[in-house]
Design brief:
Elements: E1 30-33, E2 39-41, H1 48-60, E3 62-68, H2 74-85, E4 89-92, E5 98-103, E6 115-116, H3 121-131, E7 137-141, H4 152-161, E8 164-168, E9 172-178, E10 187-190, H5 195-205, E11 211-216, H6 223-230, E12 235-240, E13 243-249, E14 258-260, H7 265-277, E15 282-289, H8 296-303, E16 307-316, E17 319-327, E18 336-337, H9 349-356, E19 360-366, H10 378-388, E20 392-396, E21 399-405, E22 415-416, H11 422-431, E23 439-441, H12 454-461, E24 464-467
Parallel strand pairs: 2-15, 3-14, 6-7, 10-11, 18-19, 22-23
Antiparallel strand pairs: 1-23, 1-24, 3-5, 4-5, 7-9, 8-9, 11-13, 12-13, 15-17, 16-17, 19-21, 20-21
The chain binds shikimate-3-phosphate.
């Protein structure tokens, strides 16, 4: 692939005082022009959530875990570096196979440098959990976006194990975590629907004696539970009146695994949505994981009348997988997205809101407060940019409504701020593929955190998305 099309994200560039805060160096302004006839096959990269977990659990197993299909986005590369800093050996073969020589549960060594997790909330929260019950101290930081995000949701339950945390005001990074030398097992009900919090507690529970129990009232992505079982931990999930009760037996010896990371449904969302709104399009997005805790967007799009079909449905590595075929769908209708579906499509609301602009009628999204504490406040970021492009949006603390214009009636023409948020940048670029005037984003650099081949992949389908300047 053309190197020019591979966005580069440099997490370590220091902004000078007075310049806009940016964790990734020079902004990359981008523009999307109206396009048609997207066609071909979109081979999206590996799943980000599963990639982080493969590296972390590989580092906690004894022996060599081999991973293929790992997402080589900056978020995951930062987690790989962190695992090296805690003592695991992490290498990449020329063919893209990754090898992790783990140090065993409780075997993390103390890093001699600050751990920089860049833009990644998943990276920092899961790693904090993984080291929280080791007798070591580590200091974590991130970029301007990550350093604004709440960490108390993780450090509060970690304190129950005996872990200490000192960070900035409101529980923000940079933050130092002092691991518990004699950890206690924990029973914890997760107060917000968050797979990151659930996973942090489970990873901490690995090195506590006895049973650690995590209860979640709403089902969130279950990759940690599935992968822990694969690595040989004893873990059960029971659905009760209290919610999903997940019980983990502490201090197992994790056995190294061979992992083939499925492709990311959250990345597939962008070419799929682009095809639905661009005239004459018909694309195939193969091998997409359709784990029910992740596939909410596709169900929602089908309810809106999208011509989106699952082909070659099968099971792979215990996960449902299919090839997605998405075709231009000029008669989309706005719907009310069931709020209980929120967790299974939490990262997809930004791009759904772009598609909703092309639907007839209102798309109502409720129970989505968590969107306000992602890489950016995603309701605010999308509402502001959609309005600037001629679309009416109403919003409250945990809901928003997009008033669709119907195909052919979206004005476009505005420049949107991406707020160091990959999904905001990609969502506005998708919006611009069918608007009457082009849509710009101020900085496409963050796209490389999760989807480093986005530009090339979209160009190969026929989408007119370019860098400016
Ligand atoms: C993730 C969980 C979600 C999601 C994030 C990835 C994970 O965050 O938004 O992109 O891999 O566990 P929350 O746990 O904050 O909902």
């Amino acid at each position: 692939m053309d190197a020019r099309r591979c966005l580069r994200y440099q997490a370590f560039d220091l902004p000078t005082k007075g310049t806009p805060m940016s964790g990734h160096g020079t902004p990359i302004p981008m523009i999307a022009h109206r396009s048609s006839g997207l066609s071909g096959t979109a081979d999206v990269p590996g799943d980000k959530s599963i990639s982080h977990r493969a590296l972390i659990l590989g580092a906690m197993a004894v022996g060599e875990t081999v991973v293929s299909g790992l997402l080589e986005g900056q978020d995951v590369l930062d987690t790989a570096k962190a695992m090296q800093a805690f003592g695991a050996e992490v290498t990449r073969d020329e063919d893209g196979t990754w090898r992790i020589h783990g140090v065993g549960v409780g075997g993390f060594g103390e890093p001699d440098q600050v751990i920089d997790c860049g833009n990644s909330g998943t990276g920092v929260r899961l790693i904090m959990g993984a080291m929280a019950t080791c007798p070591i101290t580590a200091t974590f930081t991130g970029d301007a976006s990550l350093n604004k995000r709440p960490m108390a949701r993780v450090t509060d339950p970690l304190a129950l194990f005996g872990t200490q945390a000192v960070g900035r005001s409101a529980g923000r990074l940079p933050m130092t975590i002092v691991g518990a030398a004699e950890p206690l097992p924990v029973r914890y009900t997760v107060p917000v629907p968050s797979a990151q919090v659930k996973s942090a507690v489970l990873l901490a529970g690995l090195n506590a004696p006895g049973q650690t129990i995590v209860i979640e009232q709403e089902a969130t992505r279950d990759h940690t539970e599935r992968m822990l079982e694969g690595f040989g931990a004893t873990i059960t999930t029971e659905v009760t009146d209290e919610g999903r009760v997940i019980t983990l037996q502490g201090q197992p010896e994790l056995r190294p695994q061979t992992i083939d990371v499925p492709r990311d449904p959250s990345s597939a969302a962008f070419p799929v949505c682009a095809a639905l709104i661009t005239e004459g399009s018909d694309i195939l997005v193969p091998n997409i994981g359709l784990n029910p805790t992740r596939a909410g967007l596709f169900t929602t799009l089908r309810e809106m009348g999208a011509d989106l079909t699952y082909e070659n449905e099968r099971q792979e590595g215990g996960e449902p997988v299919a090839d997605l075929r998405a075709r231009f769908s000029p008669n989309l209708k706005g719907i009310e997205v069931p709020h209980e579906r929120a967790a299974s499509m939490i990262d997809e609301y930004p791009v759904l809101s772009a598609v909703a602009a092309y639907a007839e009628g209102q798309t109502v999204m409720r129970g989505v407060k968590e969107l306000r504490v992602k890489e950016s406040d995603r309701i605010e970021a999308m509402a502001t940019g959609l309005r600037a492009n001629g679309i009416e949006v109403e919003e409250g603390e945990d809901w928003w409504i997009v008033h669709g214009k119907g195909f052919g009636n979206v004005a476009g023409g505005a420049t949107c701020a991406s707020h160091l948020d990959h999904r905001i940048a990609m969502s506005f670029l998708v919006l611009g593929l069918a608007s009457n005037a082009p849509v710009r984003v101020d900085d496409g650099g963050p796209i490389a955190t999760s989807f480093p081949i986005f530009e090339g992949l979209m160009a190969d389908l026929g989408a007119d998305i370019r860098r400016e300047g």
